[in-house]
Design goal:
By secondary structure, the chain is of the alpha+beta class. The protein is built from seven helices and six strands. The chain starts with 17 loop residues before the first helix and ends with a helix.
């Protein structure tokens, strides 16, 4: 199961929707089947090599996404070490990507909801940097804002890097992906 963020027309192309954009790219990359509604989510399935991949976009409010994630983890009997949550991160600069095996929510209410619902912090995270909230803005207004044209170019490059990171996680393992992708993603590195 991979990814989540708020899904509604008014949130498309906002900073908070980066995870869903990556899921959509990954679905196209592996030619995943058409999404179906299931357990408060849109769920698609596909294959990458010999591995079956379930791609999920919870349709709950982001701060309640743990309910949807926990339901699908239970239904598909997914080991937590095989769960990867993709989300926007205010604590990473735009152009950064970080893979973590486990840890706290780091202030992200959606991740806290998942931790609370699973009663565990032991799941993989793919954090996508959206930059820090400017001093004159509230965090909620910032994450629901759209990227500038320059930022949009950067985030689109990062989304393709994230898809490569997901493929590496699935095919080569988390350690390999962390060694390859937990570095500043310069424009040259993004042209892999």
């Amino acid at each position: 199961m991979l990814g989540w963020v708020i899904q509604a027309k008014k949130y498309e192309l906002t900073r908070h929707n980066v995870g869903f954009e990556i899921i959509d790219l990954f679905c196209r990359e592996i030619r995943a089947g058409k999404s179906k509604r299931q357990d408060f989510s849109l769920v698609s399935a596909g294959r990458l090599g010999a591995e079956e991949v379930i791609l999920v976009k919870p349709q709950t409010f982001m701060n309640s996404s743990g309910m949807a994630v926990a339901s699908l983890v239970s239904e598909y009997n997914i080991p937590l070490e095989d769960l990867c949550v993709i989300y926007d991160d205010l604590n990473l600069d735009l152009g950064f990507l970080r893979i973590r095996r486990k840890g706290s929510a780091g202030g992200h209410k959606g991740v806290k909801s998942i931790i609370d619902s699973l009663e565990s912090q032991a799941f993989l995270r793919l954090r996508i940097g959206i930059g820090q909230t400017p001093p004159q803005m509230e965090a909620i207004d910032y994450v629901l804002s759209k990227f500038s044209n320059e930022e949009r170019e950067e985030i689109e490059r990062m989304e393709y890097v994230a898809v490569d990171a997901l493929k590496t996680i699935i095919l080569d393992g988390t350690d390999s992906a962390m060694n390859k992708f937990n570095v500043r993603q310069s424009e040259e590195a993004m042209d892999l």
